[in-house]
Amino acid sequence: MIAVLAACGAAPVGPGFYRVERGDTLSSIARSNRTSVQNIARWNGLTNPDAIESGQVLRVAPPANSATAARGADRSSGSAQASSGSTASRGTTALAPAPTAAPSSTIALVWPAQGTVTRRFDGANSKGIDIVNVAGTPVVAAAAGSVVYAGDGLRGYGNLIIIKHNSDYLSAYAHNRAMLVKEGQTVAQGQKIAEMGDTDSDHVMLHFELRYQSRSIDPARSLPPR
């Protein structure tokens, strides 16, 4: 993800983001946002630039203090047309389905917060798990990686942190009261990255998602039993 997370329903997205519509290609999105296909793929952790879907939310502007902010526009006219012309999948909803095949690689996670799991992953209405505890409960990185997003630009997620762990996996931590890391920062597994809160939520909780090649998967399969 580097922010491939779809917000709930069809709510507007924040500045610097774009919700994929039917018929879109990555090159057309790049052209309309005056950047390059390579930039969008990198900012969103897209291992397969052709695999975009209707309803997906993509970052189309560089993260704060990114060097690509200065050079992205200069490269957009040529490189924006370099990607394949495949279109976004027709007939999909704003919430992309979980992959049908099991991931070809695995990742070992630690629990991102202490608390009670009140909602589990189902791949349709729930794209992750909800962990409930008191405000201020520490939120930690489920695995080591690099912070690729820290902000509140995605409606429905509140203060959101996204960590890229490797070329296949990233994790998302939503509704935080406080965010303790910045974009571009490297974090260790178990490092405190936020405090649990209720931003863009009607109660205090951590909404935690795991993505494999930009698609949501059940994080419980990679978390230790407890």
TrEMBL record:
Positions of the UniProt region annotated as Disordered: 63-99
Gene3D superfamilies, per the entry: Glucose Permease (Domain IIA), LysM domain
Cited SUPFAM superfamilies: Duplicated hybrid motif
Descriptive protein name: Murein DD-endopeptidase MepM and murein hydrolase activator NlpD, contain LysM domain
MF terms (GO), sorted A to Z: metalloendopeptidase activity
Comp. bias regions, Low complexity: 66-99
Organism name: Paraburkholderia sartisoli
A Pfam family of this chain: LysM
